Amino acid sequence: MAANELKPDTWIDLYADYLFNYAVARVSDAEIAKDLVQETFFAGLNSAKNYKGDAAERTWLIAILKRKVIDHYRKINSKKGKAEVRVNYNASTDSEGDWLEEQVADPFSKEGDSAMENEELGVAIQECISKLPKKQSLVFSMKTIQGMSTEDICNELGINPSNLWVMIHRARTALMGCLNQNWF
Amino acid sequence: MKISCEQASNICNKSQYKEASFWEIQKLKLHILMCKTCAKFTKNNTALTSLCDKAGLNVLSENDKEEMRKKLKEHL
To answer: Is A177 inside a domain boundary?
Structure first.
């Protein structure tokens, strides 16, 4: 029984940001991430007939994107990529000159951990946002993520400020509830 | 100086985007002293803001999405 079906028309509205965040976290380049997301949608269309419907649309797309990310790294590590020598000592000119010492990981650095945690957090937030009604998620991401001013958003969407604040309020309340179990 | 819970939540939301005025914030602070529910709401709301900041979320611009839509249509 096919519980889920594909609706490619809605993909970009529903999943583009989610997939984009996922990709950016892994390739750390917005342009490449954008291309990967686009390729994912193409690949999704091409293999739509293989979709059995036992996974949710989003899970299915993220699985494709995962392969695309792996392919991307394979490509840059191909023969041509490997021919380049990528040891760049002296990245910062004020280094002391002890190569080995400078390569050792700093055991007190929390950077790696927190980066990973933040990435998971980003995915969790994005998931919660995608569960919101469309108008709310749009307003919320315009306001919070893109940091647009109230006035601009009102002009663009043709709503008045009190309307906007009501939607923000609903979105934030829903997000608090959604994130509550794991992140507060 | 007294405000309703509805007004308080409104000010709280605005202050998450630094759009509440100084006096509004004073009123909110006073209200929080008397109202447990709003105090909790404010705490969670602030936490949500800091989570969103920490996550460093990215979104595609509408233009990018429009371009994607076009390409996807061509592909169909």
So the answer is: yes
Which of A10, A165, A170 is the best mutation test for B, with the most CBs of B within 10 A?
A: A165
Kindly identify which residue of chain B lies nearest to residue A162, measuring between CA atoms.
B10
Overall domain count for chain B: 1
Helices then strands (H, E): number in chain A?
A: 9, 0
Instruction: Specify the pTM.
Output: 0.69
* Residue A149 belongs to domain spanning: 124-184
Regions in chain A scoring below 50 on pLDDT: 1-2
CATH number for A50: 1.10.1740
Domain ranges, residue B16: 5-75
Which tens digit of pLDDT belongs to each residue from A32-44? 888 898 889 888 8
What ipTM does the predicted assembly reach?
0.81
Q: Please give the span between the terminal C-alpha atoms of chain B, in angstroms, as a whole number.
A: 61
Distance, CA of B12 to CA of B39 (rounded, Å):
10
